[in-house]
Amino acid sequence: MLEKLKQKVYEANMLLPKHGLVTFTWGNVSERDTETGYFVIKPSGVDYDKLQPADMVVMDLAGNKIEGSMNPSSDTATHVELYKAFPEIMGIVHTHSSWATSWAQAGRSIPCYGTTHADYIYGEIPCVRCLTKEEIDTAYEKNTGLVIADYFKDKDVTAVPAVLCKNHGVFTWGTSAENAVHNAVVAEEVAKMAARCEMINPQVQPAPQELQDKHYFRKHGKDAYYGQ
Amino acid sequence: MLEKLKQKVYEANMLLPKHGLVTFTWGNVSERDTETGYFVIKPSGVDYDKLQPADMVVMDLAGNKIEGSMNPSSDTATHVELYKAFPEIMGIVHTHSSWATSWAQAGRSIPCYGTTHADYIYGEIPCVRCLTKEEIDTAYEKNTGLVIADYFKDKDVTAVPAVLCKNHGVFTWGTSAENAVHNAVVAEEVAKMAARCEMINPQVQPAPQELQDKHYFRKHGKDAYYGQ
Amino acid sequence: MLEKLKQKVYEANMLLPKHGLVTFTWGNVSERDTETGYFVIKPSGVDYDKLQPADMVVMDLAGNKIEGSMNPSSDTATHVELYKAFPEIMGIVHTHSSWATSWAQAGRSIPCYGTTHADYIYGEIPCVRCLTKEEIDTAYEKNTGLVIADYFKDKDVTAVPAVLCKNHGVFTWGTSAENAVHNAVVAEEVAKMAARCEMINPQVQPAPQELQDKHYFRKHGKDAYYGQ
Amino acid sequence: MLEKLKQKVYEANMLLPKHGLVTFTWGNVSERDTETGYFVIKPSGVDYDKLQPADMVVMDLAGNKIEGSMNPSSDTATHVELYKAFPEIMGIVHTHSSWATSWAQAGRSIPCYGTTHADYIYGEIPCVRCLTKEEIDTAYEKNTGLVIADYFKDKDVTAVPAVLCKNHGVFTWGTSAENAVHNAVVAEEVAKMAARCEMINPQVQPAPQELQDKHYFRKHGKDAYYGQ
Fold first, then answer.
1. Domain range for residue C26?
2. What interface predicted TM-score (ipTM) does this complex get?
3. What's the CATH number where D120 sits?
4. What's the CA dihedral at C191, C193, C196, C201 to 10 degrees?
C-alpha cells in the first residue's frame, strides 16, 4: 500500500546524506498520507546505501505498524505526537546535523541574525527543555513529541518549522517530506552562520524586526512575490 | 535576443554551486550588455539543477522585463541601481555565502589582514548599514541598491568590488558576470580567513598599508606584472 | 594465512580515507582472529591508494611477525597491549582525525554533551596522560598501550570504545575492525560537536545522566530496542 | 629541455587543488634540477584546469628565464633566494592555504601541540617578520626570500620545512616538488588542529620536548624506524 508515498519518503530520506545532514543512520524522514491518515517512515537503523523504497514502514497515528517487514525508526513515537498535534504538518525530519545539534547541546535557541533565517523561519529556532527523569524513563520518544507540541500549542507551527531538542538534535517539518528536508538544510545552514556570526561579533543583536518581517512575508502569505 | 549573453550569464550562475557559494536558490548573477544597455539575470527561485540558458531574463535599467517567460530574481531592483550608479560595473553577483554572510550578520566590515585580500580588494570590504523601516517597507530591493550606491558614490567601485549588506548577505561585481563570481569567491575566502585569523589572534591588526599597496598594484593598474 | 581476515582488515583500513579520518598514512586498523589469537594489521607508511589486501601483516600477541613482506604499522605494539589487556576488544583503530586530535592536543577529555555521544559511548571520552620521558625513551608504542590499559583496568572497555592520547591522537576499538572504524567516526563527530557546543555556550554542562542512560541503553544491553 | 622534470613539477602543482590547498591560481610549485642547477616552476596566473606540462618555465638561479613561452610565477624571485641559500632544498611550494594563512595573517608562529606536527617538523612553524616599506618597494619577492633565508641561516632548514610570511601565506620545501607539497599538506593540517586546540583549551602548552623528539626522530635521521 501507499507505494507512491513510500517512494517519496525514500527519496526524501536519501536527500539527508546528499545534503550532508547525517552520519550513518542518524536521521529519519516521514510523510503523512492525507487520505488514510497513516504516515510512512524510514525503518530503524538501516544504512542509507542499503535502503530501498519497499523498506519504508506504514504507521497509524496510534503508533501501530500497518505495513512493513522492519521496525520503524526508533523516533516514530515523536513523529506520531507531532502529526497528532498539528494537522498542518505533513512531513517530518529528525537529524543530528552537526551545527544544529551543537546549538541543541549548548541548550540555546538560535536567534534570527539575518535574512537567510528570516526567509524561512519567523523568529528564533527554539530550543525546548530537556525531558524530566520521569518523562525519559516512561515514554521517552513520545514525551519528546509532547514537549515540542506543548511549546508550539499557542504558536503558528508553519511559521517556525524547526525546533532543537536540548542535548539531542533537531526536528523540522513542512508541507511534505521533501519540504521538511528543505527546512532541515535551512536550519543547519542558519545554525552554522549564527555560531560564526557570534564568534565574529560577540555583542551581535538579532536582525531588526522590520527586516525579518520583510523577508519572511516576501516569501510567505498572500503578499509573497518571491519565485515563479 | 542576447542569446550569447544568456549563455554567459547562465554559466556564471552555475559557477555559484560549483564554488560552494549557494544553498538552494540563494544567489543570482547578472551581466550588462554594452550595446543595448540591457542586462541579463537569473530567474527567481529556480533550482540550479533545473536552470537553462533560455530561462535567463532580459531587463532594462528602468526595471522593465524586455524578454523572458519567468520572473527575474527578486533582487533585480538592487542590480538595476548598481548598474545605473556605476557604468564601470558590467556584472553583479549576490549570494548568502556562509562566511561573508556571517560577517554581514555580525554587522562588521572585513579588515584587510593579508595579501590574499589585497590582491583583489583595496582596503576593507565594507558592511553598509541596515535599511530604515521606511526604506524596507517602501522599495526594499531598490533601496538596498541605493544604500550601496550611496556608500560608494565618492569611491572607486572597481577597487573594492564587494560589499556586505548588514543582516543580509554579500554583493560583488566586476568586468563581467564571470569576473563578479570570481570576486564572490575571493570575498568568501577572505571572510573565512579573517574570522579564523581573529580567533587565532584577537589583537590582530590590518596588514601594513605598504604591503596592501604592493599586492594590489602588482595585479592592477598600469604597473601590474602578475599573470601573462 | 587468514586471507579472509586480511581482506576485512584491508577494507576497514580503506574506510578511514572514505570517512575523512586520515591524511596520507596517518592511521591504521587491525582485527584479531579468534581461532589463532593472531591479529592482522596495516603495514607501516604505505599510501592508502597503493594498499592491497595481501600487504596486511599477521602478528602474534608477543609482537612477532607471523606473516607479511612488509613492516607492520609503527603503532603495532600499542595494538598488542590493548588486545592482551582486553579480550573483549576484537578490532582497533588509530587515527589523527582532526577534531579528536585537537582535543587530544588540548589535553582534555570530551564531555558527553548530547545523545549522539550517549548513543555509542557511556560517559566522557577520556584523555589519558602523556607518557613520562622514561616511558617514551624505552618502549614508546608499548607504553602507550600500557597507559591506556591502566586507565581502563577497572572499567568496562566496551562501554567507552575510544580514548584520546594526550598530544597525540585517538584510539578506538570494537567487536571487529569495521566496528572500531564506526566508533572512530563517532568519536570524530562527537569531538567536533563538543568543541562547537562550547563555542556557542562556554558555560555548557554535560547532558543529564538520565538522558545519557536512556540513549546508551536503548542501543546497548539486554533492553536495547534500536535497529532491526 | 628538462621534459621529465616539467612533468614532475606539473604533477606536483596539480596536487595543490587535489589537496584543497589552492583557490584559483593562488599557489606555485618548483623543483631544482641537480645537473644543470636550473629549476622548473609554474607559469604566473594560469588556471589549474588549463595548465599543461609544457607550460612549465625553466629558470636559472640568477632569475633568468632559460626556457618557456610564459612568464614564471610572480613569486619566482622568492624561490630563487631559497634555492641559493639552501642547497639541501630541492623543491618549493607557496600557497595561501586557508588555515596556515590565517596564522600568517595573525602574525603567530604555530606551536608544536602534538605528534602530527612533530612527525614532520621539529619545533614550531615560524612566522617571519613583515618586510619593511623599503624592502617591499624595491624588490618585494626577492626580499621575501631573503627574510626567510635570514631566519634560517643558522638553523637546519630540513628539520623545519615550512615558514609563514606575516600577512601573506606559507612556503614549504623538501627533497622534491612532491615532497614539498607533502609538507604543505602537513602545514595546513597542523595549522587547523593548532587553532582548534587553542579554542578547546586556551591555556594549552606545546607538547613535551621528549615527545616531540621521539616522534621526529622515529621518522628522521639514522635511528628512524617508521615506514618500509
1. 3-217
2. 0.96
3. 3.40.225.10
4. -110
